[in-house]
Amino acid sequence: MNSMARPFSSLWPHQPPPERRLPSTQVLNTYELLEQILSHLPMIDLFAHLRLSKSWRSIILRSTRLQENMFLTYPSQPICPEPFTYNVQVYCCWNKGQTCYRLPSLTFNPATSMIAPYNISDTTSPMALRQPLAKFRVHQHLFARFTIEDIPDLEPEDRPSWRRMFITHPPLRAVDFEFFAKDDDFRRLVVLWNPVGITFGDLIDGRWRMARDYEATTGKTAVGEIECSFHLLHPQHDPMEEIWTSAPLLCLVHCFSFSASRHVLSASAKDSDRIEQPKVWE
């Protein structure tokens, strides 16, 4: 008998045993479970995971919950500003062209770091970008005011995904955008308007459009201060109520300077008597 004879069973096609999947692998390949896990990650990690895995990218882009956590969507419609009439006889406010909103609360994008002013809630979340797009600081003044300390120095052609992030939840459809030239009395007030909600990209593009507008008008290099602001009507009684014909005001203002090289914090309250009538940028 030939000792090298093959057993009869070896003549059948060989089928390897089924691969055993680790429990962790099964979890990460289950949409609902992975969505739950990703929902607890900081915003910066969610943006990073868009480039980490095709399957994870698909889940992040399809998940409404994760898109909300990244401030890329919101379940309700953007908030429209309300019409109000300023009573100049009562108080000489430095900005007479406010865009005002009536909201019980407002959540700022966690890509910023700030202290909660007055009636604004849920703004002290530890979830923040490692290099924030903008840092806000609150001043306990006549109005609550927050200021941009830094904003990315990017050309409008750059299209990173953070550009689509709303600056607030719920999104706001309009913010005031005002430019003060450094070397002369040139001042320009416009209203940035986005029907789906103002984003960080709108602020960046608005800054560059304002700079080009100034340079085309004056022939000078755009060096000065831009103040981007919006205002919330305070829900509680306030002695400043008589300033407005309908309700008191919680004022939120953030300012930044721009030049050809770098954008630096500049917070100031200026008389706006010479400000041109606002125009709308969509």
Question: Secondary-structure blueprint of this entry?
Answer:
Layout: H1 23-28, H2 31-38, H3 43-49, H4 54-62, H5 64-69, E1 100-101, E2 107-108, E3 112-113, E4 134-135, E5 138-140, E6 144-146, E7 168-169, E8 174-181, E9 187-193, H6 200-218, E10 224-232, E11 250-258, E12 279-281
Parallel strand pairs: 1-10, 3-4, 9-12
Antiparallel strand pairs: 2-7, 5-6, 8-9, 8-10, 10-11
Overview of the structural elements:
Residues 1-21 are annotated as: Disordered. This is F-box domain-containing protein. Pfam families: F-box. A hairpin with a 5-residue loop joins β8 and β9. 29% of the residues are buried. The protein has two domains: 21-69, no CATH class; 100-281, no CATH class. The chain is built from six helices and twelve strands. By secondary structure, the chain is α/β, with parallel strands linked by helices.
Number of helices, counting only DSSP H or I runs of 4 residues or more: 6
Q: Give average pLDDT, whole number.
A: 64
* Structural class computed from helices and strand pairing: alpha/beta
- What's the structural domain tally? 2
Helical amount:
10-25%
Largest sheet: 6 strands, mixed
Task: Detail the poorly predicted runs.
Answer: 85-96, 114-131, 137-148, 235-278
**Rg value:** 26 Å
Region (Disordered): 1-21
Pfam families: F-box
Domain F-box: 29-69
Protein name: F-box domain-containing protein
